[in-house]
Structure formats: structure tokens, C-alpha cells
Design goal:
Blueprint (H helix, E strand, L loop, with lengths): L5 H12 L4 H4 L3 H11 L4 H14 L3 H6 L2 H8 L6 H16 L8 H4 L7 H12 L8 H11 L7 H16 L4 H14 L18 H5 L16 E11 L2 E5 L15 E4 L5 H12 L2 E14 L4 E13 L4 H4 L2 E5 H4 L6 H13 L3 E2 L2
Parallel strand pairs: 1-5
Antiparallel strand pairs: 1-2, 1-3, 2-6, 4-5, 4-7
Helix pairs in contact: 1-12, 3-4, 3-9, 9-12, 10-12
The structure holds iron/sulfur cluster.
Length: 360
Amino acid sequence: MLVEKWPARITRWFVKGHRNMPWRDDPSPYNVWISEVMLQQTRVSTVVPYFNRFVKRFPDVHALAMAKLEDALLVWEGLGYYARVKHLHEAARLIAGKNGGELPKTSRDWMTLPGIGPYTAAAIASISSGERVPAVDGNVLRVMSRFRGNVAFATRSSAIRNIQEMLSPMIRSVNPSHFNQALMEIGATLCLPRKTKCHLCPLKYECISFRKNGINLCPVKREKEAVPHYQEVAGAISKNGRYLIVNKYRGNMLHGLWEFPRLRVDGNIDSRMAAKALLSYTGLHSGSINHVISFKHAYSHFCVTVNAFSCTWRRGSVKTILNRCARWAPLSEIEKIPMSTVSRRIFLTLTRHGKTTSIV
Ligand code: SF4
């Protein structure tokens, strides 16, 4: 039987020259778990400072399980995709409660925890426990599709299954942690979506796309859908030195972060009308209204332009619909609670620059 040479070659390449990352220096199951969850949809360079802060604040699963979700959210603030930290916290409590704090060893057991899909489970189990299971995400899919010259698959999941089957015998003969990380590293540093550095790639000798110059064909690109763009207004409304903040906990993509009230508005209305609409939404009336900041913020599936204003309460009570999740808090407290990125930016503009212009 012909023994493929490239699996051993890429593991050697990885060991010799991989990028340093804090979870690679100490690949304990806890560190690998936290890093893999943080790395979902997020670049390594963004994750590193968050990872360092998170493991310093919650050094093990018990510390995370005993913490309040709000404390974990505060450390996560700004990293986005907040369901991830909610799931981490929930999973930590399950592990601490049921298993006495012992983390799973197999990908199958990891997958029973909230927020862990097949890729993350395979990555954690192979890196931290040496399970011989291929971890195939979008990067690895791109690398292996180009490597084999495969252009078309009916669906992404059928492509992933196919690549997993192809890699399963390969991973048996090498260090599974190094093998999976080598493919991830090739996808992240050499076999990039728009540009490739094939001359540096340890797969170049067998790579069909490279040999046939067909890199742009693999994998077939999907047409990008236009990202919807919405207009929003946000208000920093103060009353006796406290600001109105809301926490739309359940069913909301912000998963428990606090915010200044905000509202999606018609893009055609001016900033004065938008501020009035938000005040009417809260049930409050104010005197003069000042513009604080306007900025664009991108989410995974849409983006918003936020026009933020500040004003001082004059009369009225917070409407019942908001009252259940709203409270008045001083700036000194707002500084310490987890906030959405949009509201934190408004808060920082208010407190650091303090410059506003009158709208009304
Ligand atoms: S040789 Fe080029 S196309 Fe092939 S896997 Fe490496 S970087 Fe990608």
C-alpha cells in the first residue's frame, strides 16, 4: 500500500515553524477549549488579548462555573458572538456539577456540551487529548479542496464529510494534534481565500491545484449576498446623574449585555425626529437634545449606522415594555458592567470626550 508522505511532512513543518499562541504554550484541555470557542468566527490576533484576560480571571473550570455570567460577559465584552460565552459558562457549570470538574476527553463527549459542534469537538479532543479525529472547518475545507483539485460538492456539509473520510486514515500515522493544527495553520497563513503562498506550502508537491494552476477554481465561490444596512438611534438619557440602560436578556443576540436604549429607524428621517422617536419609545420627555457620535458598526449578517444623542430627563416614566429590563445607573457603575460594543463606544465618547452638539 502506498504510504502518503505529506501527513508526516506537514506535521514536521508545523512543529518547526508554527506561530506562537498562549494556548499552544500550555495546551491544557481548559485552555484549548476556551481558545477554540473564542476562535470561532474570530481571528487569532483579536483572540489573544481576550484569551489572556479570560484565563487570568477564570483560570480553571471551577472558577468559571462559580462566576456570575455577568462577570464572564464583562471579560468577553467586545469579542462579539455573545452566545459563545453564555454557552461556555453553562458548560462550565455542567462540568463542575456532574463530572467534578473533569473535562471531557473525547470529541463525542465534548459534543454533549452547549456551544460545541463537530469541528470544535474534534479540534479540542485532538489537540488536548490526542484523539485521532480530523477537524475540518472552512479553512481546512479550502486547503483540502485545492489540494485534491475538487471543485464541486452538492453541499458544504457533504464536502466536509468527504474531506473527513479522506483525512481519517492519514491522521492515524501522525501526531493528531500537530496534523490538525498544521492544516489549520496552512489555511490561515498560506492557502488564503484570495491569495496563496504555494512556494512556501508543505503540500505543494502533491497539490493538484498548484500543479495545474487551478487555485482560483477551488472551492467554487458562492455569490456573496448584499449585507443589509440599517439606521439606528441610541440615547444616553440621564436623570439625576444616572443613565437609563436596558438589558434585553432572552432571545436577543446580545445575550445579557447592557445597552443605552436604541431603536431602528427609517433612514430618511433626520436626527431630531429619530431622537424624538426613541424618547417616545421609552416613554420619556427631555429638554435639549445633543448629538454625541455617529458611527457604523458591522454584525455578522448586517450592519448599522448609529446616531447617538444625549439628553436630560424632564418628565415621564419608563414604559412598561422596557421597565422590566431597564434601570438607571451612574456612569461609575456603567463603567463596570458588560455593555454592547455600540453602547460602550457611546459611553466612552460621553465620558472621555464629553463634546456634544445640540440637535434640539
Ligand atoms: S500548494 Fe498552494 S493551493 Fe495547494 S494547498 Fe498549498 S497553498 Fe493551497
